[in-house]
Design brief:
single chain; about 325 residues; mainly alpha; 3-stranded antiparallel sheet; 6 strands; globular
């Protein structure tokens, strides 16, 4: 299925589509047939065990470092009054140049029903930035709530394994409903309702200007995710992910899946923070040998780290073909 169409479906909460045999390429059907009866559990465990010994979660560590440094840059700029990066994640100025979070900009435009030049400049700048980097990269590489929720996720998974709690899931389509609700609230009330409850904005402002009572709300969200529903805010409510996912439809930086060596053991889906995007790694679920993971992917790199056969890799669309073409001409 077309990458843009499938990505849009997933962003709006639809289940990933599964190809019929007629829709799959002949090459990928041959690969699946060759694995049938020849890939034993012992083979899978051997490769997995060897990878675990060698794996050091490189992309996860890089991502955590970038996320912490970006947010600390706001803190340092404010504390020392160096005017390098002023404001917060929702709206800021980098060396005097305006930047505005896309979802926050949309909320402001709907609420106040007019455009300000600085807001337009900030919105266009951030749009271009995340268009190049990959829309939902913002979620896993910049958002401070994402980091806290990711750490809370480890506790949630541990509690589930110990059978102390049970994870509860919801229909992912409710995220699209919340997106419309928040937009209508801004339009009808003249107030940016979502921004008052957004844990991203609350945490960003608390880090820079000091804690406030709004952190109680963030704490309650984390408790809900630890004891009831895994990563509930990001998966089912937050419109920021929807906004940046739409931007990511045309982003060149993606995660690419190759079906040739994949053992379909599912380790990637277990660690993935948005596991539906990796349904294509299930045996028989890919349309082609090489397929891009959808735009709802946060490009967090956890699947790339954990994959024992390097079947998932980062790719810059266009650049990879250009480099391979240049190599062939030598």
């Amino acid at each position: 299925m077309n990458y843009l169409v499938e990505s849009l479906r997933q962003i709006m909460g639809a289940k990933p589509s599964r190809p019929t045999k007629a829709e799959q390429s002949a090459e990928v059907r041959t690969i699946y047939a060759g694995k049938r009866g020849h890939l034993t559990k012992a083979d899978v465990e051997k490769v997995r065990h060897e990878h675990i010994k060698a794996c050091c979660n490189q992309w996860q560590r890089r991502r955590w470092l970038v996320l912490i440094l970006v947010n600390l840059l706001f803190v340092v700029s404010y504390f020392f009054d160096v005017q390098l990066l002023e404001g917060a994640l929702t709206a800021s100025r980098f060396v005097g140049f305006h930047m505005a979070d896309l979802n926050a900009s949309l909320q402001v435009m709907l609420a106040y029903k007019h455009l300000v030049l600085n807001l337009i400049i900030g919105t266009v700048t951030v749009f271009i930035l995340w268009l190049l980097l990959g829309g939902r990269t913002f979620c896993s590489w910049v958002c401070p709530y994402h980091l806290l929720s990711e750490w809370a996720d480890y506790l949630h998974v541990w509690l589930v394994k110990k059978r102390l709690i049970k994870n509860h899931t919801f229909n992912r389509k409710v995220r699209g409903i919340f997106y419309v609700i928040f937009a209508l609230l801004a339009l009808l009330s003249g107030y940016t309702v979502f921004e008052t409850i957004s844990p991203t904005g609350i945490l960003s402002r608390a880090l820079i200007y000091g804690p406030g009572v709004a952190l109680i709300w963030v704490g309650l969200l984390l408790l809900f995710e630890v004891f009831y529903s895994r990563r509930a805010w990001c998966r089912y409510v937050c419109p920021i992910g929807v906004t940046y996912g739409l931007v990511g439809l045309a982003s060149p930086i993606r995660v690419k899946y190759n079906a040739v060596d994949c053992h379909h053991e599912g380790d990637c889906r277990k660690v993935c923070l948005v596991p539906h995007v990796l349904d294509l790694t299930i045996r028989g679920a890919a349309y082609d040998v090489n397929q891009d993971v959808g735009a709802d992917c946060t490009r967090c790199g956890m699947c790339v780290d954990v994959c024992p056969t390097n079947s998932l890799t980062y790719e810059i669309k266009g650049l990879s073909k250009m480099l391979s073409g240049a190599a062939e001409t030598r």
